[in-house]
Design a protein that fits this description.
By secondary structure, the chain is mainly alpha-helical. Helix content is 68%, strand content 0%. It contains 8 helices and no strands. The longest helix has 20 residues, at 63-82.
Length: 133
């Protein structure tokens, strides 16, 4: 993963010009607010979020962004596999879950804690549910 991340970092804007639009499409399907999107991307400035949306090729590609994007894409992929109905897949994050990992809250609450590890926990949970792929 480290070698792949280094290669992506070297490619710079060619990666962000396709990566960020894909992430924003997922966020739209999940019906996330701007504040929620900022949290998941690790941003503290709303202007940066809107600049990234309008000019994704100008976004600064960092290891943190790559890691967050990887987890978001992995969560999305797992949901598409586990719940082939697009509506159900898109609603899963916002639906309260009685699994002890979520303790009756929505998985979205977990990933909005803002830490990369929270994204990793939800992705690992979904990967395990779908058989580790």
């Amino acid at each position: 993963m480290i070698a792949q991340a280094e290669q992506l970092l070297q490619r710079g804007s060619s990666v962000t010009s396709s990566l960020l639009p894909a992430i924003f499409t997922i966020f739209s399907q999940w019906r996330l607010t701007g504040a929620q999107q900022m949290t998941l991307l690790g941003l503290s400035n709303e202007k940066t979020l809107y600049n990234w949306k309008s000019q994704p090729e100008k976004a600064k590609l960092t290891r943190d962004l790559l890691e967050r994007a990887s987890y978001i894409l992995g969560i999305y992929k797992s949901l598409q596999i586990l719940l082939p109905d697009q509506v159900l897949a898109d609603q899963w994050l916002a639906t309260p879950n009685d699994n002890p990992l979520f303790n009756g809250t929505a998985p979205l609450d977990r990933i909005l804690a803002g830490q990369v590890v929270d994204l990793a926990v939800v992705r690992d949970f979904l990967d395990t549910e779908r058989g580790g792929w």
